[in-house]
Amino acid sequence: MTNDEITTLLAPFADPATPFELRDLGDTFGFKMLRSGIQFAGFIDKASGQVVADGLPSATIKQFLASKRMAGLEALAQTQARVFDTTHLVARPVQLDGVRHEDGLEAISSLAPKANGATRVVILSGPAGMGKTSLVQALVNARAQAFLRRSGDRLALLVSSRGRRLSLLNDVIAATLGDLRAPIINHEIPPLVRSGLVELVIDGFDELVNSDGYRDAWESVGHLLGQIGRGGLVVLSARDAFFSEQDFVERARRETIPGASNIDFSFLELLPLDEAAIRALVTLRGVSEPLREEVSALCMALPEGLRGRPFFAERIAAKVAAAGAIEFRSPLTVAIEEFVERELPLVFGSTWSSAEGEALHAFFEEVAIEMRRQESDSLDVDSISFFLDLILEGAGVSPDRRKALVHRAEAVAFMEVGRGARRRGFPHEVVRDHFVSRRVLSLLASPGQGAIREALGFGTFSLDLADSVCLLLDHRGTEVSAESIGRVLSIAREAGPGDALGQNACALAFALARRIREEEAVVFEDLSAGNVSFADTRLGHLVFRRCGLASLDLCDCDARLATLENCDLGRLRISADTKVPNSLIDGATVRLLENQSAPRAARESRDPRSIREVLAAHVATADDGRLSAGQDLLLRLAIRWRRTGYLEDDGQKTPVFADPLWPAIRDILERNGRLEWKFISSRDTGSGRARVGIMRDANAIIQRFHRDPAQQIEISRLWSEASEVR
Questions:
Q1: Which of 565, 659, 573, 580 is CA-nearest to residue 626?
Q2: Alpha-carbon distance 456 to 501, whole Å?
């Protein structure tokens, strides 16, 4: 070892403002320094690098640096093993330098400094919620455990700027070491990295970027890399909206970084979890065995772009595990709202206010609305920054803070790489439509027609957006009044069928009709609309009079209470479980019938006589002999539970509970283990703590089918007992 190498490794460990003395003694070097207020001296063999120091056995230079008198890494390892819990981590696939690995922890653990002496900088990227933080925490834990077992000789130091609002990396490292009560200070980290004893992992590297952009971030990292000199391994973890593999290295090289030529880059990208990993995660989160399959299916049913991200699956599973039941109505809405809540401290700091929480929602709403207006799935970064600045200003955020936040607008929460280097979008259109739906329902609740007209101006009101509005209503447990639908319909009539505003009004009115209160009625009169869907819905007292619909979807729909008069349907879709009123045969002209339950070759029909015969087989009324009164109530209860997520015991306020047959059906459900009563908080009900019923396998009850033969026997017995209730 040379004089310079020893000085670089040992001098930072001398107490502040005290000298580090090194003398050349021929075959050895002698050193002396003040360490923790105690004089410390020793000798280093030039050829072998062995160190003999006061009170310590002979050791290699790495063993000496790790010792209790120097870095005290064993104490740090013990703390890390306690702090970083990885019991909920499942194996997750990654792509390392273009090669897929099924176990991300194994892949990142296998990384080591380059043999050519260069510092290896690993870029760990992935969209928000993909599990970057969990993976690096698992790395820290694995390194600490191996170090304590003496099967490993290096630790990983995880530093994060999250919530700290610190721009200098050395400050972040110092704060992290303070949090861990580590026996070392930030100036001692570079020699430990260089010697291979510590791997530096910077989580949330994108949050070090402020209004000065990459230069500021790279100057901070570059200063540290310059102190390391050569060798070692550094991991930079950030969202892929910040990292772009195509130009990241080139941009980094353009910055003035001491020793930039000594850097070798590797890229590690997190990939989505598969179904088996989701099931394992659900189990690890403590979901009870009877619910695991259903919860795993809910997680896998999330749209592409969200499906397979550990964060969303973990939050859904955690909610179910805590409640012991699936109490929410929409797993998608749970995933989105939980994610926004998770982002608040990352955007505004740990002391964020409720006003800032509303501001973040409002930002996403504005971005989503603009995308719909432009009929696009992405926006340019400048527009996104403009909206964030506007919203933050309205929330009273200071100019300096706004400037720093706006610069990172392109990587905030759901903002991900879109089509084009300077464009960002949501991970899926349903996420965009969720935020549009929030604004639509907010405006719908406002007095006057002006707010509704504003909501109807958010681009084309598609069937997907209608579904999103209904999904949000379901999640909130909100039913719509006939008066609200009437306000929307009045705009449709004023605008006329050829006007875009009128078409949007029709689409919104039909969407809201899916969630109308059972005791109310709405008349749709003299309207023209495109695609209308009441699939998987129990319709209330709706009257369709002289309406022209290009397509009407009644698959799995109970439309017995609806009435049709002089209507024209371009296409009507039905399924085996569709129930229609007599008025559909006599009061509507069906141009094309699509019967999903028929063989593929005979699925579509344009023959009026054939259409009437098929529809006649689906005609049903409440007292037509197909269902007993008890079975009808059982079906209504199951449909209502699937819509609202629970049955609140509110006396006779809810029509199904006012039914005189309710006590008998309740006894049947409880006796067959299909109804469990519990208390839930006002956050779920909106009306204080309430006694609610959780119905098990509502879908199986509705469909009268379960894949498990034993469960099928129970379902059949349930319907048989209900048939006797009259």
A1: 580
A2: 6
Is the pLDDT reported for residue 699 higher than 90? no
- 585, 612 in Cβ contact below 8 A? yes
Per-residue pLDDT band at 382 (split at 50, 70, 90)? confident
Tell me the C-alpha distance between 441 and 477, whole Å. Answer: 13
Contact call for residues 678 and 325 (beta carbons, < 8 A): yes
Question: How far is 469 from 659, CA to CA, in rounded Å?
Answer: 30
What's the rounded Cα separation, in Å, for the pair 462 and 532? 9
Please state, in angstroms and rounded to a whole number, the distance separating the CA atoms of residues 424 and 436. Answer: 17
Strands 647-648 and 690-695: what pairing?
antiparallel
Query: Residue 24: beta bridge partners?
Result: 29
| Those residues with Cβ within 8 angstroms of residue 99's Cβ, 6 or more apart along the chain or in another chain | none
Pairing of strands 379-380, 423-425: antiparallel
Which segment of 343-347, 602-606, 651-655 scores lowest on mean pLDDT?
651-655
**Tokens in use for 483?**
């008066």
Whether 196 has a pLDDT exceeding 60, the answer reads: yes
DSSP 89-155: -----EEETTEEES-HHHHHHT----TTSPEEEEEEEE-TTSSHHHHHHHHHHHHHHHHHTTS---E
Structural tokens at position 347: 């955007």
pLDDT at 528 exceeding the cut of 80: yes
pLDDT mean over 685-691: 59
**Percentage of the chain exceeding pLDDT 90:** 25
Is residue 165 pLDDT above 90, yes or no? no
Please state, in angstroms and rounded to a whole number, the distance separating the CA atoms of residues 690 and 688.
6
**Burial profile 292-305: b = 16 or more Cβ within 10 angstroms, e = fewer:** bebbbebbeebeeb
Phi and psi, residue 154, nearest 5°:
-145, 150
Q: Which residues contact 420 (CB under 8 A, 6 or more apart)?
A: 378, 380
Calpha distance 708→610 (Å, rounded): 37
Q: End-to-end alpha-carbon separation of the chain, Å? A: 95
Amino acid at 510: F
Using alpha carbons, select from 537, 445, 543 the residue that is nearest to residue 487.
445
Give the residue among 227, 216, 182 at the shortest CA–CA distance from 66.
182
**Is the distance from CB of 255 to CB of 218 less than 8 angstroms?**
yes
Mean pLDDT score, 471-476: 83
Q: Enter the tokens of residue 467.
A: 């579904």
Judged on CB neighbours under 10 Å (0-12, 13-18, 19+), 2 is exposed
Q: Which of 554, 523, 522, 520 is nearest to 537 (CA)?
A: 554
Give the sign of the dihedral formed by CA 161, CA 165, CA 167, CA 173: negative
